Amino acid sequence: MTTIQRPVGELIRQWRERRRISQLDLSISAEISTRHLSFVETGRANPSRDMVLRLGEHLDVPLRERNQLLLAAGFAPAYRESRLDDPGLAVARAAVRRVLAGHEPYPAVVVDRYWNLVDSNESIAVLTEGVAPELLAAPANVLRIALHPEGMAPRVLNLGEWRADLLGRLRRQVETTADPGLAELLAEIRAYPCDQPETGNPERGEIFVPLRVRHGEAELSFFSTIATFGHPVEITLSELAIESFYPADDTTGEYLRQLAASRGAAEG
């Protein structure tokens, strides 16, 4: 099959429209004339490599897609992509492992752009217990693990609102990246059954959407934070995210600490 490369001007215009930025606003922030930007978008002018990079930065285009802009303009990619086990990423890998280990006894995961599981700490087992083995087989996808009827979903007490939050995050990611693979994942996850209303309950006075999950006879409650690498110039690092789960109440915290102590005693 022959892949047709779309003109760089058309791609820039689509990214600008996706970001809901006018030509005037973009030209001011990128410090180019509106006339020249218009000529670039219509194909009447060819942008320089520096201009493509500048426009990509001001449009907040992901690094992977910035390379596509450069290729469409006839330039070599600027951002390299490495395997996570590449020696050049050793320092980053070590930092990720420190974060995961330091978060014990609470669960934490590392995911890539497509929500595939890259790494996790031991405490993630409190969330994945009972998940079908095929969902945990590599490449395991944390959204499938979370929302598939053979995954965590039957144990999630507030499945509707937690599902709505996850789908909202994925939908915003699709809008940000325009990635067809993520759009396919969104369509798949949306099709999973859910017998609860997919809305939150602000009357409870909560400050975040919690994850309420059953573990054995216990009912646990979590909130999470998401960390990314600051100012990455490498595609793999730019697409990694560390999601760390924290106990949303004292009961959950004590339960996890006791669970970790029991695990340590058994291993010792």
TrEMBL record:
<dbReference type="InterPro" id="IPR041413">
    <property type="entry name" value="MLTR_LBD"/>
</dbReference>
<dbReference type="InterPro" id="IPR010982">
    <property type="entry name" value="Lambda_DNA-bd_dom_sf"/>
</dbReference>
<protein>
    <submittedName>
        <fullName>Helix-turn-helix transcriptional regulator</fullName>
    </submittedName>
</protein>
<feature type="domain" description="HTH cro/C1-type">
    <location>
        <begin position="12"/>
        <end position="66"/>
    </location>
</feature>
<dbReference type="Pfam" id="PF17765">
    <property type="entry name" value="MLTR_LBD"/>
</dbReference>
<dbReference type="Pfam" id="PF13560">
    <property type="entry name" value="HTH_31"/>
</dbReference>
<dbReference type="InterPro" id="IPR001387">
    <property type="entry name" value="Cro/C1-type_HTH"/>
</dbReference>
<dbReference type="GO" id="GO:0003677">
    <property type="term" value="F:DNA binding"/>
</dbReference>
